[in-house]
Structures are given as C-alpha cells and as structure tokens.
Amino acid sequence: MEGYERPRINGDDVEHVNTGAASKNRDDEFWFDDGSVVLALGDIEFRVYKGVLSDYSPVFRDMFSLPKPTSPSDTIGEAPTELTADSCPVVQLSDHPGDLKHILRMCIPKSGSILNPFVTNRPSRSTISALIRLGHKYQMGVVVDHAVAYLKIWYAAPAFDTSPKWHLLYSDDGAPGKTYAIEVVQLARLIHEPSLLAPALFLCCSLGEEIVQGYKHDDGSCSALSLEDLGRCIAARSRLADETVSLVLSVFSPPVAKACATPETCETAFQDILSALKGHADLIAHPDIFRSIPVHLGSGLSAMKLQCASCSKMVKKRDADKRRELWRLLPEIMGVRDEVDGWTQERV
Q1: How would residue 162 be classed by pLDDT, with cut points 50, 70 and 90?
Q2: Quick check: 14 and 59 in contact, CB under 8 A?
Q3: What residue stretch is flagged as signal peptide (predicted)?
C-alpha cells in the first residue's frame, strides 16, 4: 500500500511469551483444542495457530520464535512462567480482546463465517478500526490494505473514479458516518495514508459539537482530533462556506446555454433562483461544498423547473466542474497541503 510504513518493533508493543495457560475465560469463538499458542488478553484467552499468524505477521513470527521456557522457574524478561499440561505457550498481549477477534476473523475464518467482510458485506466501524490499528501494530500489511481500500470507497471515492461519486461523501446507505471521520483522521495519520486525510478532515467540518466530543468506540474509549487538526477544521469552515456561496453564484449566473430554446425564460429563471437564495443564506453558506447544488436546491426552488434541457445540462456541468476544481484544492483548504504529495495528479 502506497504510503504505508511498517512500524518499529519495541518492548511496549508486545508483552512476554510464557507457558502459563492458567484457566481464565476461554473465548467461545477462537479456542481450538489443537491450537499451538494461547493469546492472553486480560482475563480472555484465545487458543489459535502459530503458523497462520506467523504467515500474516512478522511480529508474531518473531515472538513465536523466542526460546520456550523449560521449567516453571524460568523467566522471559520480567515475566515469571508456568508450564501447562500440554506445554502450550502463552503470549500475553495488551490489546483489547474485541479488537483481536476482528483480526482473527480475517486470519482464521471459521466454518459458516464470512471469509472476507469487505467483499460480502459492509464491515462495522469497530472492525475497520481494529484491522488498521492492530494490523499496523503487528505489521499485517494485507489486512491493513483491505481496510484502507474499503475506507477509500467512502472517504476518497472522487479521487479514484473517472465519474466522481460525490454523493458517497454524504451517503447514509451503509457509510461509516461523519462522526467516524474523526477516527479516520487518526487512522490516516497512523499509517501515513494521505489520500484519506483531507477528505476525513473535510467531513469533520460538517460536525457540530461532536467535533469536540470525539468519536466514541464500542469499548468506551474515544478518538479525538488533535488541537492542530481541530484548528484546521475551524479555519476551514469559513473558507468552505465562502467557496459554497461562490459555487452557487457561478452555477446559476447568466449567460444561458448557447443552445437554449427559451433564453428569456431561462434567464429569468436564473435571476429568480438567485433572488430566492438571498433570503435563504443557510441553504448555501455551509461547508458541504461537494453536495450537488442543483440536486440539493432543486426540490426547493420552483424556478429550476423552468429551465430548458440545454440550460439544465449546463448547470449540472458547471456544478461538477467547480466541485472538481475544489477537490483539487481540498488539501490546501484543509491546511494539509504539505502532507499530501501528488494530490493534483489524482484523477477526478
């Protein structure tokens, strides 16, 4: 994945390996009696297979290659060890058990489970976050790639489609949601994925008080924007509102289309639209610059119905062209131009 950097391995990432599989709470989904390693996270234990995890992760492979203790008095690092009846090694991890489950479902899908949640259905937000965060931590590049590719469908679609699907930025049909954009900003910075950064910050600008409250995860933890990113969003809101007003004026201003069949009627329609909008600044002075202006305003402006087919087509083209231009400027608008290389070369 372009921009993905493998993190360094250090002692804080992974706890010690030992052979003490004291009876705690066995996970109902991932406990295989013939498993070759027990992963212990708090009071939850998972018995799985070294070979499978090693194939996905060089971090796990290195952990599993550590010498196995030979007696109950042996230690690895600071951790005292014990021996189980079948001498199955235990790896103590500091991750949340629920997050690890998402990783295991990708690596060790069970009978009747969905092999790839990104192909056959839409993964939950907790799944996406866990796969990226733990996938990055354990250097599971394939897992991270799947999750990032899915996020790009919703947060960066216009840059990867010759026919921009701007509506996906605002879709309620299975989209992760605007509040989740706060988490996407954190994920984009974690894995150095610039294509997600500007769109995610842009969606944060549409939030109300949630932008300060942060995104709350299922386990009660919270992802919040840094003060620097919060400042970027506050500064960008004003610029975005100005750009939206400018977009509306350029879309509905005369002249009419060259092939217009009813120039006087359509010119009057344009003037009526602009006059109507003067009393409804709230409809246009907002940060959602990628919401289609003709579609968004058309149902509330009867004058739109008076335009001929040529003028209607011209209005839609003006709208799309202006939004393409603003897309190219998005990193600059969001204050992350220096962090996003090659943005203007992206296809829109």
Answers
A1: very low
A2: yes
A3: none
* Count of beta carbons in the 10 Å neighbourhood of residue 78: 7
- Distance, CA of 177 to CA of 175 (rounded, Å): 5
Q: Helix 181-191 to helix 141-155 angle, to the nearest 10 degrees?
A: 140
**For 172-231, what is each residue's pLDDT tens digit?**
555 567 789 999 999 999 999 988 899 899 989 988 888 998 998 888 889 999 999 999
| SS percent in the chain: helix, strand, coil, step 5 | 50, 10, 40
Per the prediction, the chain carries an average pLDDT of 78
CA distances from 123 to 114, 127, 129, 200, 251 (A): 11, 6, 10, 18, 38
Q: Does residue 289 contact residue 240 with C-beta atoms inside 8 Å?
A: yes
CA gyration radius, the chain: 26
State both tokens at 172: 């309620």
Please give the backbone phi and psi of residue 102, each rounded to the nearest 5 degrees, phi first. -65, -40
Q: How many residues does the chain have?
A: 348
Of 85, 64, 84, residue with least CA distance to 76? 64
Cβ–Cβ < 8 Å for 118, 150: yes
Question: Who's near 64: CB < 8 A, 6+ residues apart?
Answer: 17, 37, 50, 53, 54, 89, 91
Q: For the chain, which residues make up each domain, given as ranges?
A: 125-229, 238-340
CB 190 within 8 A of CB 132: yes
Taking the whole predicted model, whether its pTM rises above 0.85 is answered as no
Closest CA to 262 of 303, 317, 292: 303
Q: How far is CA 291 from the centre of its chain?
A: 19
Structure-token match 């899915």, residue found = 150
The torsion of the CA quartet 170, 225, 283, 297, rounded to 10 degrees, works out to -10
